[in-house]
Amino acid sequence: MTDRITLRRPDDWHLHLRDGAMLAAVAPHSAGFGRAIIMPNLIPPVVTGTQAAAYRDRIMEALPHGAALQPQMTLYLTDATKAADIVAAFRGGVIRAVKLYPAGATTNSASGVTDFDRVQPVLEAMAEAGVTLCVHGEVTDPAVDIFDREAVFIDRVLDPLRRRTPELRVVMEHITTSEGVAYVRAGGDNLAATITTHHLVINRNAILAGGIRPHYYCLPVAKRESHRLALREAATGGEARFFLGTDSAPHTDAAKLQPCGCAGCFTAPNTLSILTHVFEDEGALDRLEGFTSINGAAFYRLPPNEDRIALVKRDTPAEYPTQIAAGGETVTVFDPGFPIYWHLED
Ligand code: DOR
Ligand code: ZN
């Protein structure tokens, strides 16, 4: 039985670190990753290179001394974004990618794209300069059922967009459906997808069966079991176009536990432990490193991290905090109740 594995240091290709007291509370939990793509959906959103550089400085201040994490900043695409600003921030080494939120799709997405024709020249300039577009792939049409919004987005928005701009490098973020898996598999070299830890572990029953559980609610919302199984196959199957983006998205318990609670699962503290468990269950521990540490870097045309981490397996699951403190409030850690056998070695 394997009870210790080493991995090149993992990267997190989709992470929310927030700002202020929340940033101070959550950043240490991602400090052991190598690179992390930092989501720009602050209030107000990160829309200029100057703002991205200042946000990066705040993140560096929030990280513990000696942290491995190298934040990879993103700009939030709006209808008003200028191509020249993106290209300058990219060429200047300030940003790694640009994030597309359809307006209204999720947390702090009100400034997102409302008119895809208007951003077309920006997408063309990004394709030309080699800037990756990270896409939140859900339509916002209220007539579309929330469980269908990813599949419909592929047909209505993403596929037409990629046909218009085939050279654009696109990461379909946090895919949650078998349609997403199939689309990315068939999509050629300029398309990849991140998969979260939580979408490998829960299906929609976790949110809705036997009582409503807001801590499992995120966007895109977890789908039925067949989709979770398709995601597990994609993540653990060794295909280079799928890689880890945790989408760790902390909200205070007060913000989640209310009549209209926020979307997001805070997975950073246990994410590698849970992922290792998932890969072990699938008999795929030998493919974990590809998913966490190699495939994403390759898509972003970066070398994999040279240093390594180790995870060790204990015989009995460990106790771990179900909440952390953040600015006088609490944030619940995913997954309260999931057995944690694998631990990062000190
Ligand atoms: O569940 C989510 N939370 N999905 C997103 O797309 C955004 C994120 C957040 O910022 O809270
Ligand atoms: Zn996200």
Overall description:
- This protein has 346 residues and is of the alpha/beta class.
- The protein has one domain (4-344): TIM Barrel (Alpha-Beta Barrel).
- The protein has 12 helices and 13 strands.
- It has helices spanning 20-26, 49-62, 83-91, 116-129, 149-164, 178-185, 198-201, 205-208, 225-236, 253-256, 271-281, 288-299; strands spanning 4-8, 12-15, 35-38, 70-76, 97-100, 132-135, 170-172, 191-195, 242-244, 308-313, 323-326, 329-332, 342-344.
- The strands form 3 sheets. It has an 8-stranded parallel beta sheet with strand order 2-3-4-5-6-7-8-9. A 3-stranded antiparallel beta sheet has the order 1-10-13, covered by helices on one side.
- Helix 3 (83-91) links the parallel strand 4 and strand 5 (97-100).
- Helix 3 runs parallel beside helix 4 (116-129).
- The longest helix has 16 residues, at 149-164.
- The protein is globular, with a radius of gyration of 19 Å.
- The chain starts with a strand and ends with a strand.
- The structure holds (4S)-2,6-dioxohexahydropyrimidine-4-carboxylic acid and zinc ion.
- (4S)-2,6-dioxohexahydropyrimidine-4-carboxylic acid binds at residues 16, 41, 106-107, 136, 218-219, 249, 263-264.
